[in-house]
Amino acid sequence: MTFTGIPTAALDFYEDLEIDNTKAFWSAHKHIYDESVKAPLEALAAALEPEFGAPKFFRPYRDVRFAKDKTPYKTHQGVWFGESSRYLHVAAAGLYIAGGYWDTSSAQVERLRRAVADDVAGAELERAIGAVRKAGLTLGGHQLTRVPTGYAKDHPRSELLRYKSLAAHKEFGCPAWLSTKRARTEIAKGLRAVTPLVSWLDIHLGRD
Predict the structure, then answer these.
(1) Which residues contact 1 (CB under 8 A, 6 or more apart)?
(2) What pLDDT, on a 0 to 100 scale, did the predictor assign at position 64?
């Protein structure tokens, strides 16, 4: 299937699902999910694969075994490109893209802190963050409430030392181009904009 855009019906589907997150609704509207969510995103992922790597589609069903929230379906469809640490999803609010390291091991966290504290590597990270912010992305990640033990509380990069994971994201909402074939170009551009941060993480954290 050739990618021609993400239809507005995909966003409408998730807006309705947020209101009525039940098996009855899903069963009655699954054809909309298949036609307006799954099929376009599969076509998009296939188009992006040569640059960002093999995609992984997240299941639409929630694991409710240990959750207080027992609603059975996720209210977004996510796609993960593990080789390039990129992610996108479609929800009622529209398109979301991101890139970076989310699930870091304790060894990676320690390498992150050492690199942030280092004069050369830390300065490189600040430049990378500046580049992704200039491209319109927002920095995020899991953060401690204080600078970790072993590092100066008044370190010039004390805020970055508090991070246990680092990523950048952008909420696109529902621009006019989302339902057109131009979406492929704009989404690729957004995923590409995360490169300075991901490249720094690849070098200094590595993949455990």
Answers:
(1) 39, 42, 43, 46
(2) 76
The CATH superfamily of 8-204 is Protein of unknown function DUF1054 (3.30.930.20)
What tokens appear for 78 in the block? 């996510």
| C-beta of residue 33 within 8 angstroms of C-beta of residue 76 | no
- Show the tokens assigned to 16: 């309705």
Q: Look at residue 69 in the predicted model and tell me its pLDDT.
A: 81
Both tokens assigned to 201? 């993480």
Question: Is the entire prediction scored with pTM above 0.90?
Answer: yes
- Give φ, ψ of 125 to 5 degrees: -65, -40
Give the domain ranges of the chain.
8-204
- For the segment 30-44, what is each residue's pLDDT rounded down to a tens digit? 999 999 999 999 999
Best CA proximity match to 194, nearest among 130, 106, 98, 103: 98
